[in-house]
Design a protein that fits this description.
Helix content: 25-40%
Order of helices and strands: EHHEEEEHEE
Distance between the termini: 27 Å
Number of strands: 7
Shape: elongated
Structural class: alpha/beta
């Protein structure tokens, strides 16, 4: 069994999503199934089959989130060393090819969201950055070619 390390914020968000699925969306689907069942012949009842498919999809998502939460471990931010890059580190870096600056937070795969500047710890960039320090230059092989990044700052 492998643990899923994540921030408290990410854990709380997963708990809220699971609660929404179990206590709002699933009862709505069960109600739709009951309504469709009341309309008669189930063999040709599109509404019934669509609601059953939706129930199956929801139950799969609920099981997945329950499994993630069962294996989740919230990272104690006070115990992280701030001098090297690790999970939940916020990293500012410069692309040496075009001098573009970018900032990303290394997050668990369940918290990754590029719009929020959170990249998965499993991504090639995050893997190359792990355990590096300010001033280090990292080469990352990405689909577009080789990326050279200089680490400017690290924060938690």
């Amino acid at each position: 069994m492998s643990f899923e390390y994540m921030s408290q914020e990410g854990y709380d968000k997963l708990v809220a999503e699971l609660h929404q699925l179990e206590h709002v969306e699933l009862p709505q689907v069960r109600e739709a199934i009951a309504e469709a069942r009341d309309k008669g012949d189930l063999s040709e009842n599109f509404e019934y089959h669509a609601a059953k498919r939706e129930q199956s999809r929801l139950l799969g998502r609920i099981r997945f989130k329950q499994k993630v939460l069962a294996n989740a471990r919230v990272v104690d931010m006070s115990r992280l060393a701030g001098d090297s890059i690790q999970l939940l580190s916020k990293v500012e870096m410069t692309n040496l090819a075009n001098q573009a600056r970018m900032t990303y937070t290394i997050a668990s795969p369940h918290e990754a969201n590029l719009r929020e500047g959170k990249i998965s710890i499993n991504s090639p960039i995050a893997q190359a950055l792990l355990n590096k320090k300010v001033g280090d230059v990292v080469e990352v092989k990405v689909p577009a070619g080789l990326l050279k990044l200089r680490i400017e700052s690290i924060s938690q």
